[in-house]
Amino acid sequence: MSDKPDLTEIEGFDKSKLKKTETKEKNPLPTKETIEQERKGEA
User: Fold this and answer.
1) Long-range Cβ pairs for the range 31-39 (8 Å, 24+)
2) Domain that holds residue 11
C-alpha cells in the first residue's frame, strides 16, 4: 500500500461546475475594545 492518497479524482475535478457563494460571518468575535468595555462594566 502507498502512503500517499490517490489524487486522480481530485486532479480531474472541474471547478467551473461549483457555484459561487458569498460567505458571511454569523458570529464574529468581539473586538478588543468591546472586551475592555465589558470588563470595565462588570468590575
Assistant:
1) none
2) 7-41
